[in-house]
Amino acid sequence: MPLQHLVDYFNHRFAKEHSSIFRPFIIKDEKVSGLYGPIRIGSLFSPIRKALDPTEIIGHNAQIEVSTYGSHPFYESEIEYLLANNGQQPTNLESIINFDRLSRTVHMLNYLTLAPVDGTLFLDVDPLHILGIKHDHGVYFGEVISQCGLKTSNVVIVLSLHSQYARYYQKLLAGLANYRHQGYQIALKFNDLSRDNTALDLITKLSPNYVSVSAKYLDNSYTDSLFVEALSELTATVASVYGQSILHQVDQKKIDSLARSTHFDLTEGSYYQAIAFNYRGKSRIHERPFVVADRTSSERSFPD
Hints:
Oligomer: single chain
Mean pLDDT: 80
Helix content: 25-40%
Structural class: alpha/beta
Low-confidence stretches: 71-79, 86-91, 278-291, 293-304
Largest sheet: 8 strands, mixed, barrel
């Protein structure tokens, strides 16, 4: 189905669900955006690479690119503030659920503009969204995926776990199990690693397809032998449940080296977009991240 027809379909569906004439999805230059109050949501795709051969891309991580209507940049840290203070939107869990669904629908539509569409798409899901849905997690979005002609098995639902949600971990894991029942792959994401075994216990209980850690929060800990040992233990635990480990936001050579020395399977970050590779006889090619708004960018600069 042509992209414009899909945009029209989801606008009609939204209007019917909310008894409204508002059309939140817009398309311009083959780029889809979603409107939520004063917020305009776009998509930014970053390649997920094999750690031992960064020229091989296995999928893409989708992130929201948010702005207001041409006045000034809108930063992700302000989303919660706007959700709580925008008088035109509900300020309860329904608001979080609607925003989360809108964002993921935008990502899915923009994902179709990648040529060719293959590999795996990683989509973050707000913990409050999972807690707000009582049952049948993933059914609504499964219908979106189906309308786009894709399969849930090619989508990874990524849940970021923070300490403030510790008392709700069991409910969150149950929600992820529901997504898995619908055919999705699932991932746990840790922005920091505590010295206790909470992360390892959750990985063992859930057996996720992927477990990721953000290098942004490592600071100088990569020089700490105990921390390096903890990363190695994490990747070994992931491997023991037949999952794959990902180190995100790799922006330096030393972090890339850390990823390989601690046996991460996959990596993602600006480091790989800024340098040229010459692995296994493949040609040296530069790459920039794929931004849907920039049609001259290419997420396929590296040959498969």
